[in-house]
Amino acid sequence: MSHTAPKTLSDYRKDIDSALEDSFLRRTLDTFAVAYRANREAVFKEVDERGLIKQIADAKDDACKHMEELYEQFRRVAEERGVHVHRAATAEDANRIIASIARENNVKRVIKSKSMTAEEIQLNPYLEKEGFIVDETDLGEWIIQLRHEGPSHMVMPAIHLSRYQVADDFTKETGVKQDAEDIQRLVKVARVQLRRKFINGDMGISGCNFAVAEMGAVSTVTNEGNARMVTTLPRVHVAVGGIDKLIPSFDDAMATLRVLPRNATGQHLTSYVTWIAGGVPAGSAPAGKKRMHVVFLDNGRRNVLKDPILSQALRCVRCGACADKCHFFLGTNDPKNMPVLRAELLRSVYRKDFTLAGRLLGKVAGARRLDAGIIKKVLDGVKVLGNGEVTKAVTVKAAAYTASAKEKIEKAGGKAEVI
């Protein structure tokens, strides 16, 4: 089912205010943020963090400069393995290609593992409009699907929900009262429900962490076994990913894998790293072999590549660590509202409504509001130049105002951290 969301700006504001006042989720996300930072610091101690990140950034930059050659190499090698490779210029094109694959193979039920690219193109609503049944199988994604919500985090899509909310959702889904205190029982309920979906799926759709040109192979990096179920049990498998996921070699993927789980979840390695190179034997397929498709999405990526600043976004490995350190994300308590909160802040700055800006920032920081005069000085003082650099003088000035704002936050009973 498609996501439900507030229909008006007034509704969004009510949602934001409600989330900001939720002390339970504030404590939960605060606890997560502290634990995440400690775990991340611990697992990065044994590697050269900055050197490794630079190595990956340089490799991604180089791969993006050779995107066309890498695509052609991947397509050639993959097609030799019997894979059907598609290229979609837009989200609409990608949705149309995937729906066409489903129709050609008489698919009725689609099962999915987590894919941020599928979220980007709004694949689920499209397929449902076309008459297909779509089931998420990642635990967090399935929970938010039951609630008709979108994911609130790249790696932990249901991080904004409590076990009590999950128990209520499972009760509605199963018709049996679920105990929020019995976590193991809730996990077993999810396992039983999801196994039925795995067995009945006609087509599996997965994301793609890497697309290795020299191998014609795609990979999934997960902590749950659902992705392997999705890519092996159904008679058709579709992997969808941005064209920026193309890399030259297996070695490039191995280097990124040294950073991805450390950044994403504070682990040395995730539970499952799966490489898929061609259709595998499948008892459910008419010819005994799975039909495999790979859909590469552009959706503006090549235009972004032309900009020296914006092109850095294509270095992203989808670890979600940016959200784990973001005060806006953690401060809203309901992270799905973060883009709206930021939009409200920008609107207040544009209108020079520093009282509203102080109220928004104050709530994020845990205080009732911040002094409008301080907010005005900070926002007036920080001016970003056209080349994306901040002058040294402005940086020093902003730092002084930031320290003053931090002091006021703490006096109001909130917590503040300068990062």
Structure notes:
The protein is 52% helix and 11% strand. The protein is built from 20 helices and 10 strands. A 6-stranded parallel sheet has the order 1-10-7-4-2-3, sandwiched between helices. A 4-stranded mixed sheet has the order 8-5-6-9. Strand 5 (210-212) and strand 6 (217-222) form a beta hairpin. The longest helix is centred in the N-terminal third of the chain and has 22 residues, at 23-44. The protein is globular. Residues 364-370 and 381-399 have low confidence and may be disordered.
Please outline the helices and strands.
Layout: H1 9-20, H2 23-44, H3 49-65, H4 67-80, E1 84-88, H5 91-104, E2 109-112, H6 116-120, H7 123-129, E3 133-136, H8 139-146, H9 163-174, H10 183-200, E4 203-206, E5 210-212, E6 217-222, H11 226-232, E7 236-242, E8 246-247, H12 250-257, H13 260-265, E9 272-276, E10 291-297, H14 301-305, H15 321-324, H16 327-331, H17 338-350, H18 354-365, H19 372-381, H20 392-411
Parallel strand pairs: 1-10, 2-3, 2-4, 4-7, 5-8, 7-10
Antiparallel strand pairs: 5-6, 6-9
